[in-house]
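User: My collaborator and I are trying to settle a disagreement about how two of our proteins should look. Neither of us wants to argue from intuition anymore, so we agreed to look at predicted structures for both before our next call. Could you fold the first one, then the second, and keep them clearly separated?

Assistant: That sounds like a sensible way to settle it. I'll keep them separate. The first protein:
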Amino acid sequence: MGQANIKENPLEDVEYGDDKATSTESELRALYIDLLQKTLTNEIYGDLPMDPWSGGKYDATKRALGRDWPSQAMTMIGAKRMANLRQLTESVINQGVPGDFIETGVWRGGACVFVRGILKAYGVTDRRVWVADSFEGLPPPDPNCPQDAGDKHHTWEPLAISQEQVRDNFSKLGLLDDQVKFLKGWFKDTLPGAPIERLAILRLDGDMYGSTMDALLPLYAKVSRGGFIIVDDFGAVQGCRQAIADFRAANNITSPIIDIDGVGVFWQVRAQG
C-alpha cells in the first residue's frame, strides 16, 4: 500500500462549481450577525411564548415585533428592534463615534450579547458592553414617584433573571470576556458612580418612569455627539414615555424621535439638543 499524499491544507485547491470560494469578509461578517440575531430571538426554532396573552402558540409576527415573552430565547425585544440595534451599532463603528454600549435593564441579556457579537465580528477591541440590571426584576413603585403609582412590573417573576444566567448566555455563544462589564443593583445605586467615560449607545429598557430617569440622569451627558439613545418601552409603557418627555423638555432636546416598530424608538445626539 503506497503512502498517502497528504497536503498541508486539504481545502486549498477545492473548487466550488467553476470557481473557488469567493465569500468576502463583509459577507461572512453579515452571515454571522444574521445567524446570531436569529439565535438570540430564537426565530430558528420558534420556542413557545410564556406570556398570558399569546395563547401558548408561537407567532412569527409577534416574535418579530417583540410582542411575546419567549420561553427560551435570550431576548424578548423582537427582530425589528434587534435589527435597529445592529444598524446603530454598525453606524457608530463605521462613523467612529467614540464610546461604549450600555443597556439598562437586560432580562436574559440578548441585546447585550448581540452588541458584543457585532463588536467581535468587526474586530473592535476598545469598546465595552455594560450590562446593567438588578438581576432581581423591577423595583416596587417609589412613593415619591407618582408617575409609577400602581405599576405592577415588580410582581412579574419572569422578569427576574439572575446575573449567573446572563453570564452563561454570553458564555454559550463564546462572547463572555473582559469587554463585558456587569453593573448589578438598582440603577439609582449603580449608574451614578459607574466607571463609564463615554457612551456611543445608551439603550434604555427600564419600563418605569423612575427606572428610566435613574438611567438618563447620570448617563445622558456621557453619550457622544453622533451617538444614540434607544428607548425600548416608549410605545408600550406610559411611565417610560412620560420620563422621556420630561427629560427632553428639561434639557431642551429637540432631536427627532424615530419609531422602530410601534414600541421602541431612538434619537441621535446632536451638538445642541
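The second protein, kept apart from the first:
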Amino acid sequence: MNVYIYDKTFDGLLTAVFDAYFRKTFPDFLLSEGDALPLFYDELHTVVTDEEKAARVWRGLQKKVSASALGCLTQSWLSELPDIGMLIFRYIRKAIDAPRSIETNFGDPDVLQLAQIWKKVDGERVHLMQFVRFQKAADGTFFAAFEPQYNALPLTIQHFKDRFADQKWIVYDMKRRYGFYYDLQEVTTISFDDDSKAAHLITGMLDESLMDENEKIFQKLWKTYFKAICIKERMNPRKHKKDMPVRYWKYLTEKQGNEK
C-alpha cells in the first residue's frame, strides 16, 4: 500500500501523477501534510509541487481527452470534496493508459462520478450568476457576497466582468474568505483578514450607512415590486426552494424581511 503526501493544489496533484509514472508506483492514498496515515503502508512519498512536471502531465492529457473533459477535471476539483484528488488521479491514469478516450465511458464508475460532480459544481456556477445581488456603496463600488456550497466563484468572474464592465465591483465568497475586485481595467483577488471590522463580511449585506443614497431607494422599490408580483394562491414553496436554494436567501434583497 502506497501513500503520497501532496499540498492539495491542482498542480500538486498533476505532479503526483508525474512522480507515480516516473517511480512506477501508484498511490492508494493521496493525503496532505498532517492527515492521519493508514495503520499499515509499504511506502510513503512526499510530492514536491513542480509546475513543469504538472505542465507535462497536462500536455499529455490534452492528447488523450477533449477540452471539455479537461474542463470537467478542473471544475470538479473546485468541488473540494474530500476524495476528489484521488478520484481525479484515477481518471487521469485511466485516460493516459487507455488506447482511446474514456470521457464518455459512463460505465466506468470514476468517469460517471466525475461527470456527476461536474454537474453539481456547474449548477452552483449558474446559481451564483442568477442570484447575485449587487449593492452600491457610498464610494460607488458595487458589493455582492454569498456562501457557495462549492468553490465556484472563479468560474463566474468572466461573466461579471463582461456584464458589469462599466462599474467597479467586489464579489466575495464568505465561506472561503476571498473574493475578486474589478477596478474597470482588471480583476484582482482580494481577502479581508479582519472580518470583525466589516459587518457586511459577516451578514453579506451593506449597512445603510455604507450604502449609496440611491441604493436605499432602489432596494425599497425592488422589495415592493417583488411583493406585488407574488400571487399567494400560486405559491409553491417546495418548487420555490428548489429553484432558489435557501442558502442564498440571506443575500437576496427581496428576501430581507420576507424569508418564508
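Some points you might bring to the call about the second protein. Residues 132-255 form one domain. Strands lie at 2-5, 29-31, 43-46, 135-136, 142-146, 169-173, 178-182, 187-190.
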